[in-house]
């Protein structure tokens, strides 16, 4: 990182990636980690925690993961102190991660409930019992055998 500002902390989406090990760059426990984190969802989770002063940098790459442009999120320490009562990066990451993980679980539960509820009453195609067969082009006619 070339930008160092003591009044802000930086969060990378890779810190919350459940697919990474601690050695590969995950900074939160598995219980607070999410699958496939992005900068937009990280910013949304930070907003849901109550943080408002943040800056997104989309096309930046983490020094350890130079092949990926994951982006980073700058958070104001004054806002952290006012909202969460701490400026500790570890506490902030765990708070955001646990809130983010909870949101992800709720979303999955809603998707499962929607699938179990079945198709909507107005959706005739989903309610039909026959599968609609799409034609794969002109049908070939069978060759007729010659009778003599």
From TrEMBL:
Region of interest called Disordered, as start-end residue ranges on this chain: 52-73, 102-148
Sorted UniProt keywords: Cytoplasm, Ribonucleoprotein, Signal recognition particle
GO MF annotation list: 7S RNA binding
Entry-linked InterPro entries: Signal_recog_particle_SRP19, SRP19-like_sf
Compartments in which it is found: Cytoplasm
GO BP of this protein: SRP-dependent cotranslational protein targeting to membrane, signal sequence recognition
Biased composition (Basic residues): 127-148
Key word Ribonucleoprotein present: yes
Record bears the keyword Ribonucleoprotein: yes
Leader peptide range in chain numbering: none
Amino acid composition bias (Basic and acidic residues), ranges on this chain: 54-73, 103-112
UniProt-listed Pfam families: SRP19 (PF01922)
Chain ranges passing through the membrane: none
One Gene Ontology cellular component annotation held by this UniProt entry: signal recognition particle
Principal subcellular localisation of the protein: cytoplasm
Protein name in UniProt: Signal recognition particle protein Srp19
Organism listed in the record: uncultured marine group II/III euryarchaeote KM3_192_B10
């Amino acid at each position: 990182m070339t930008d160092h500002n003591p009044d802000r902390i930086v969060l990378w989406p890779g810190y919350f990636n459940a697919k990474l090990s601690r050695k590969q760059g995950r900074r939160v426990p598995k219980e607070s980690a999410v699958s496939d984190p992005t900068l937009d969802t990280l910013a949304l989770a930070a907003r849901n925690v109550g943080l408002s002063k943040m800056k997104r940098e989309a096309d930046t790459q983490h020094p350890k993961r130079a092949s990926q442009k994951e982006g980073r999120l700058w958070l104001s320490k004054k806002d952290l102190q006012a909202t969460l009562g701490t400026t500790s990066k570890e506490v902030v990451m765990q708070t955001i991660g646990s809130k983010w993980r909870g949101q992800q679980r709720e979303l999955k539960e809603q998707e499962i409930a929607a699938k179990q509820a079945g198709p909507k009453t107005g959706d005739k195609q989903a309610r039909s019992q026959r599968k609609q067969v799409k034609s794969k082009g002109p049908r070939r006619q069978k060759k007729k055998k010659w009778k003599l």
